[in-house]
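Thread amino acids onto this structure.
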């Protein structure tokens, strides 16, 4: 028997509240609900988590006392119920009834009357409850992140937070080895799929409405891939040349690896490395669909891999692990999972990776540093410290006026209808 959709949503949100990632817990629940309800389950989970800081603040006012840790699934159900009442077209009475009914699936009948009372009180006192929210809750961001975005990007803070609260656009990367952007736009139009060309990258296409990849013409044959336009910029800025040896150091799931090969098929070798051997399987799948070839290597970029020779690469791409504060709209669980103290840990990890990879770069070679963070501590601050410790490292400015200039690179900020928020910096090894 299929799992009730709202029960499944409550379990997913509850596990995220307990510290697990959305990707980790949503996939198995999708297999447990009826196939026709999978889209609704995704909407309920992603939508509830995008608005979680606000909905949690409302719950604090609606509950007489906080729920126990073991009842995070009930809290998840209440958050899901409030999301339906605030942000969906589901009639109020139907949303309340379905949410209360989902308590049965959680096997916590004591919560039935409470759930009904909380949701109905919200409907009666909505305006009064709204007045009790602070600025951060109204903006649907945790207080620490609201403060940092407002401090670091005062003129763009509203745009950033608005983008973080929206469903992201679906963006494609055209495989120029097989077709052109103009030709693929025509293929999409023939298939009845409305789309427009991106402004930042020559291979980028934005769909007016997201769709399943199976609906995209030529997708199985490798004509296009799904990749945000800001992420597409990595392969462009790397500027790989024929005959060069390239290292994509944190490569999974392989979007940037494949794009490098699409832009420059005449390189001598591309090594796609990742610390997670399982995630390299996804790189292999993407390479196979697109008919591309790379050398796959499971290794920790924070240590000089014994399989690789020093000074053996002409260019290195470091898409470093980070806070993901530039891609919150794609990973809304970041709002609940990330803590202010995590940022220092990410910065230390990023520096460790740069230290581990720098010996692999040839003299005269280039390293492209990228993060999907909008926070200075993970971006310019890491580069400033690294450049101070390595006399053979030189910052090379980018041409063009894209993004926002920073002291050590350029920052793209998330845009409601445009690219995600990524940071890029380029270093040259001078001797």
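Threaded sequence (431 positions):
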């Amino acid at each position: 028997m299929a799992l009730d959709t709202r029960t499944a949503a409550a379990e997913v949100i509850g596990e995220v509240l307990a510290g697990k990632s959305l990707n980790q817990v949503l996939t198995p629940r999708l297999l447990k609900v009826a196939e026709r309800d999978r889209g609704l389950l995704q909407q309920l989970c992603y939508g509830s988590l995008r608005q979680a800081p606000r909905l949690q603040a409302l719950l604090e006012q609606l509950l007489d006392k906080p729920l126990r840790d073991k009842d995070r699934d009930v809290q998840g159900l209440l958050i899901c119920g409030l999301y339906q009442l605030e942000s969906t077209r589901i009639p109020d009475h139907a949303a309340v009834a379905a949410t209360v009914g989902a308590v049965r699936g959680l096997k916590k009948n004591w919560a039935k009357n409470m759930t009904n009372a909380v949701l109905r009180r919200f409907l009666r006192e909505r305006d009064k409850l709204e007045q009790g929210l602070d600025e951060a809750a109204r903006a649907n961001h945790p207080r620490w992140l609201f403060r940092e975005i407002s401090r670091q990007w005062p003129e763009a803070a509203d745009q950033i937070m608005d983008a973080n609260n929206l469903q992201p656009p679906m963006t494609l990367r055209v495989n120029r080895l097989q077709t052109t952007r103009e030709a693929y736009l025509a293929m999409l139009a023939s298939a009845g799929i409305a789309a427009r060309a991106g402004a930042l990258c020559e291979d980028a296409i934005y769909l007016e409405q997201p769709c399943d990849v199976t609906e995209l013409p030529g997708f199985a044959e490798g004509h296009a891939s799904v990749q945000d336009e800001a992420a597409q910029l990595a392969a462009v800025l790397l500027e790989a040349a024929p005959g060069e040896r390239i290292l994509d150091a944190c490569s999974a799931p392989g979007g940037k690896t494949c794009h490098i090969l699409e832009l420059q098929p005449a390189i001598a070798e591309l090594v796609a490395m990742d610390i997670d051997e399982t995630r390299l399987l996804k790189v292999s799948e993407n390479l196979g669909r697109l008919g591309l070839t790379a050398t796959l290597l499971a290794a920790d970029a924070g240590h000089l891999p014994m399989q690789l020779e020093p000074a053996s690469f002409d260019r290195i791409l470091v898409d470093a692990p980070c806070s993901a504060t530039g891609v919150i709209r794609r990973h809304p669980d970041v709002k609940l999972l990330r803590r202010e103290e995590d940022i220092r840990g990410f910065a230390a990890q990023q520096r460790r990776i740069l230290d581990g990879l720098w010996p692999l770069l040839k003299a005269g070679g280039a390293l492209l540093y990228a993060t999907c963070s909008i926070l200075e501590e993970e971006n310019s601050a890491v580069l400033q410290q690294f450049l101070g410790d390595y006399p053979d490292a030189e910052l090379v400015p980018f041409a063009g006026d894209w993004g926002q200039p920073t002291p050590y690179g350029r920052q793209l900020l998330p845009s409601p209808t445009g690219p995600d928020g990524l940071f890029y910096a380029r270093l040259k090894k001078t001797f």
